[in-house]
Specification:
Blueprint: H1 3-13, H2 20-39, H3 48-55, H4 61-66, H5 80-108, H6 116-148, H7 171-201, E1 207-209, H8 210-217, H9 219-238, H10 244-265, E2 271-273, H11 278-320
Antiparallel strand pairs: 1-2
Helix pairs in contact: 1-2, 5-6, 5-7, 6-7, 7-8, 7-9, 9-10, 10-11
């Protein structure tokens, strides 16, 4: 048996089809020269044990063939650090959201025992979906960013003022905002829709989810703010400079968020116990009180941040003047 030919055939099987024959001839010449250099005689004069002994010192055919393939990566190297950071926070957020939703639903239905295996199964399923979504977004946006880096046409007047460092919006911020807002949009629609349907079909026995019921009525407005935010982040990936137009849109989004949160703050209480057995009422009331306080503080923080964003964007529009309107 011709062992050199067998080795070459195994390599050629994994080579790109278009270059298979040419690379095969090149490898055959290279192998014969290396064998003659190592053994002092050509392969035609070598015995079968000598050829086999020499082949054992060579790399596996698959490894040899892999060097002739174009390098392929799922996530671009430049985007990988941001991918890891985004994935970490996305998975943490998903785990917290699934756990919170499960606990609230269980308490609302009067079930105070949660199966850890069931909860872990839900978290694992949601995290796998989140991992796939983040990976897919970074895979395609990584390519888009690489394409943008090689743009030949540019406008000098779009250069940011060195004194106003905020004029340039880093791609990392835009991509992170795009991913987080997309995940939030998917989560809030799934959560509010499923809980609202459950409440309308069979009202909770022991816990009234007043905040969820109120938030469900604002779902179209929440979707509008989220979708416009996604479009703004996508636009800033292509054109990463703040202008009077984009600052105005950002201020309007902050105003919309403040309006939604302002109305949600007036729900009192956010969660309310009802018809709970006396032996469980005290412990459950303490938990619900802590949750209500936490929700109130969170909504107040979001409201204050939104008002700050409105003022900051209006001030930046004034600083830009007519230099960059859009």
């Amino acid at each position: 048996m011709n062992w050199i030919a067998a080795y070459l055939n195994a390599v050629k099987t994994n080579l790109p089809r278009a270059k298979r024959e040419d690379l095969g001839e090149e490898l055959q010449t290279l192998l014969e020269e290396e064998f003659e250099s190592a053994n002092g005689k050509p392969t035609s004069q070598a015995t079968e044990p000598e050829i086999l002994a020499w082949l054992r010192t060579q790399e596996h055919p698959t490894l040899v063939a892999s060097r002739y393939h174009d390098r392929r990566v799922l996530i671009d190297e430049d985007a990988y650090p941001l991918f890891k950071l985004t994935l970490r926070y996305a998975l943490i957020g998903i785990a917290v959201a699934i756990t919170s939703a499960t606990v609230i639903t269980a308490v609302a239905n009067g079930t105070f025992y949660l199966s850890p295996f069931d909860l872990l199964g839900r978290i694992l399923e949601a995290c796998l979906l989140g991992f796939a979504s983040v990976t897919l977004v970074f895979h395609y946006f990584g390519r888009a960013l690489n394409a943008q880096s090689h743009l030949a046409k540019w406008k000098p007047e779009e250069l940011p003022d060195p004194q106003l460092k905020w004029e340039h919006e880093p791609w990392a911020n835009s991509i992170a905002g795009l991913v987080f807002t997309s995940l939030f949009l998917l989560f809030i629609n799934g959560f509010l829709t499923s809980v609202a349907q459950a409440i309308s079909g069979e009202p909770p026995k022991f816990l009234q989810l007043k905040l969820v019921e109120e938030a469900a009525t604002f779902l179209p407005w929440i979707n509008l703010v989220s979708i416009v935010s996604i479009l703004l982040y996508a636009y800033q990936i292509v054109k990463p400079y703040w202008s009077a137009a984009t600052l105005s849109v950002h201020a309007a989004l902050a105003a919309g968020t403040a309006w939604i949160v302002y109305h949600l703050r007036h729900v009192d209480p956010f969660l309310q116990l009802a018809n709970l057995p006396e032996d469980k009422a005290q412990q459950a009331s303490q938990l619900v009180s802590w949750v209500n306080t936490s929700i109130s503080v969170t909504l107040n923080i979001v409201l204050l941040v939104s008002l700050y964003e409105i003022g900051r964007n209006l001030y930046r529009i004034k600083l830009l003047g007519k230099r960059r309107l859009y």
